[in-house]
Specification:
The protein contains 3 helices and no strands. By secondary structure, the protein is mostly helical. It is elongated and about 40 Å long. The N and C termini lie far apart (32 Å).
């Protein structure tokens, strides 16, 4: 289950934080942090592209 920490992880990644840094800040494994980053940044990219092309 991802809660507001998923949003926090995404915002941290967008600000330039690495997966190990995010994992440490959120008490997650690096693998979990990377999976959340990959999932949420991909979704944000799709949404941003859709908005830009509207």
């Amino acid at each position: 289950m991802i809660d507001n920490r998923g949003t926090a992880a995404t915002l941290l990644a967008e600000a330039g934080a690495t997966a190990p840094e995010i994992a440490e800040a959120l008490c997650w494994s690096v693998d979990k942090a990377q999976k959340v980053i990959n999932l949420y940044l991909a979704r944000r990219g799709v949404a941003a592209n859709a908005i830009a092309n509207a």
